Amino acid sequence: MQTQACQDLDRAHHLHPFTDFKALGEQGSRVITHAQGVYVHDSEGHRILDGMAGLWCVNLGYGRRELVEAAAVQMTELPYYNTFFNTTHPPVARLAEKLCALAPPHINHVFFTGSGSEANDTVLRMVRRYWALKGKPEKQWIIGRENGYHGSTVAGMSLGGMAPMHDQGGPCVPGITHVRQPYWFGEGQDQSPEAFGRACAAALEEKILELGEDKVAAFIAEPVQGAGGAIMPPASYWPAVKAVLAKYDILLIADEVICGFGRLGAWFGSQHFGLAPDLMPIAKGLSSGYLPIGGVLVGDRVADTLIEEGGEFCHGFTYSGHPTCAAVALKNLELLEAEGIVERVRDDLGPYLAERWAELGDHPLVGEARSLGLMGALELIDPATEERFDKALSAGNLCRDICFATGLVMRSVGDTMIIAPPLVITRDEIDELVCLARQALNETARRLA
Ligand code: PLP
After folding, report:
1. Which residue, 61, 188, 224, 295, could crosslink 424 as a Cys pair with Cβ 3.0–4.6 Å?
2. Are 176 and 141 in contact (CB under 8 A)?
């Protein structure tokens, strides 16, 4: 199909996620037609290095025949059956076992969903149910973080702390509040990163005391904030938060939808930071995005209570544990494991990206270049003032569009540029990514001068 014909159909009938419908209608969509390895190709014949692994999900890269074959075999045998009413099937049982083997030792159960947002709806219900079963139904409050992202369903957006989402669509789910994020570059530069990390944990404690320590059910956070801008917390942050949660007996929900499955050089971000969460929502890299599947890894404390004391848990989705999605996810995990991809991110590619990415810190437009594993961010600043650009200039979006035209997908969150490439990227491709990012920065600087 020609570019124009595809754009016309799209314009006429398709409402895109997180998109200004009218503006897109005027501009026309980019048409992506195929992909291989770390590259996507558009209908105009351009090859573009996908620095975002789709939406942080194509961990294994594009074009893996093994995943296609796993889907074809499963679709031939049993394309769909549900896991309601005491039924199961081999792929979902095997996937559950595999996930629990990879997860920290206190996690031995998984509840499947179709997406990360559904996983977060599930944790909301699970934690409130857990405390009710424990005879503490007043423990209802869930504390999230400003600028955290936990999905786009009503529960997901309520747990998240994205103000523009809260401003649309009426009231959020009651009993959810937010505390400050550990975003040192954006909000903490008047202190050392370590002092700032501790101050953020102290803010959590203050919020707990304000709500009443016996009224708080759980704290939800991404180990590293993704959609908020690839925000790696100061080293002091997680140890201090862990201590606060332990002091008041509050559950930890570590949202692993982005950090899970190798992104930070560990199977789960929680392992990188030494966390032992009670619940871990997962999705995205679970199937490398080849098919939609998510879930919640449930620690023994919550799972044992739900199993032994809960009776029927009145919650679930038509596609919970979908056999084809489960078969593809299982094959994806097997390949990540067999090819040593998580270890390679930890020992080779992560440190290599860190070294090459840090070089961009010298660019006049960059106030900070940071990375962890295969996730990175550049903070854009106006070289004339060394402060943020005037918002009206939309420097981040300009840089993003220039990147795309240069042959690199880099996402903008305000004036923070972020990358999270497929985990199969090579050193040479990292060199290319850094080179394209520098070219795009040069062109952005030229246009803003
Ligand atoms: N949680 C986190 C940390 C995410 O980044 C996302 C999506 O970007 C979600 C949850 C929601 O996942 P989904 O888009 O699959 O519903």
Report:
1. 61
2. yes
Distance 17 CA to ligand 1 centre (A): 13
The first and second tokens of residue 151, run together, are 């999905």
Question: Using a 6 Å cutoff on CB, does residue 110 contact ligand 1?
Answer: no
Q: Quick check: 214 and 138 in contact, CB under 8 A? A: yes
Question: What's the mean pLDDT when you consider all of the chain?
Answer: 97
CA atoms within 13 A of residue 204's CA, in its CB half-sphere: 31
Q: What is the mean pLDDT of residues 316-325?
A: 98
Cα angle for residues 284, 345, 257 (degrees, 5° grid): 20
8 A C-beta contact, residue 58 and residue 289: yes
Query: How far is the centre of ligand 1, averaged over its atoms, from the C-alpha of 216 (Å)?
Result: 24
Cα(286) to ligand 1 centroid in Å equals 12
Q: For the chain, what percent of residues have pLDDT higher than 70?
A: 100
Answering whether pTM is above 0.90, one says: yes
Provide the ipTM: 0.99
Q: Is 342 in the pocket of ligand 1 (CB under 6 A)?
A: no
